[in-house]
Amino acid sequence: MSRIVLIRLLVVAALSVAGVRYGLPYLNNVSDNNAEQSVPVATDSMATESASPNYSVDEAAPEEVVWGKASAPIIIIEYASMTCNHCAAFHTQTFPELKTKYIDTGLVQLRLRPFPLDAYAMSAAMLVSCVAPIQKQGFVHLLFAQQQKWISAANIFGALQRLAKQAGLSEEDVIACIQDESVLNNIRALQKQAVDELKVQSTPTFFINGTRLEGNHTFIAFEKNIIPLLPEVLPEGRNRS
After folding, report:
1. Which of 34, 85, 120, 169 has the CA that lies 20 to 30 A from 152?
2. From the first residue on, what is the mean pLDDT of each consecutive set of 10 residues in the chain (241 residues)?
3. CATH says 3-25+37-233 is which class?
4. Can you tell me the distance from the alpha carbon of 46 to that of 208, in angstroms, rounded to the nearest whole number?
């Protein structure tokens, strides 16, 4: 048996165990998700083994990816699944303008929290957690930008492994990451908290300083929610428009 084949078998085996233990459904064709994805039915094993986090929903979560300054007056919390096409649309179409106008200027901080809805999304979320902090933002962008390619690949996990390599993970790193139950438990606990406390049922779901916004929206729609929350005087002496 070749080394590459062995590695692929180990990855699939590890994810299969995770799927059984944590109620992760396996989708044969996740590229057909043309509507917002809904959360799968939680299993008893998920409920008993996914403990609630020891921090509130407003606090920084260990598995989230953050853009922007901690001092930003507006916090956007996003729950997203890496296989959700609406999530990909937000990050490739809406996010760039949001980042330029509000995140880079210190007015908004975006916190992306994993809310995986299938085994492929879970494996991608785990890999995001395992890459170096400096690589996380770029890796998230890469996963969403190339989403249709890797979720429709003949070997999805192989495609994920190749993308992870671009973010600095070796084949051995990928296996170690997928088999790391602490990473899996942290993501499932964060997801359970979102369901139990915030009633998140689909992705993407956003909370803009606590105000709920579901689904993919245009930049204009986000701006309508942001402008009323802006301080009266913006940085560099610019008045609020």
Report:
1. 169
2. 49 48 38 38 38 63 90 95 97 97 96 95 96 97 97 94 96 93 93 94 95 93 93 54 55
3. alpha beta
4. 28
Half-sphere exposure of 161 (CA within 13 A, CB side): 20
Residue 13: Cβ within 10 Å count: 13
Q: Which two tokens stand for residue 106?
A: 């210190």
* Separation between Cα atoms, residue 227 and residue 208, nearest integer Å: 11
Cβ count near 157 (within 10 Å): 21
Using CA atoms, how far residue 125 sits from 3, 16, 72, 183, 238, in Å, is 25, 16, 25, 9, 38
* Cβ(169)–Cβ(132) below 8 Å: no
Per-residue 3-state assignment (H helix, E strand, C coil) for the chain: CCHHHHHHHHHHHHHHHHHHHHCCCCCCCHHHCCCCEECCCCCHHHHHHCCCCCCCCCCCCCCCEEECCCCCCEEEEEEECCCCHHHHHHHHHHHHHHHHHHHCCCCEEEEEEECCCCHHHHHHHHHHHHCCHHHHHHHHHHHHHCHHHHHCCCCHHHHHHHHHHHCCCCHHHHHHHHCCHHHHHHHHHHHHHHHHHHCCCEECEEEECCEEEECCCCHHHHHHHHHHHCCCECHHHCECC
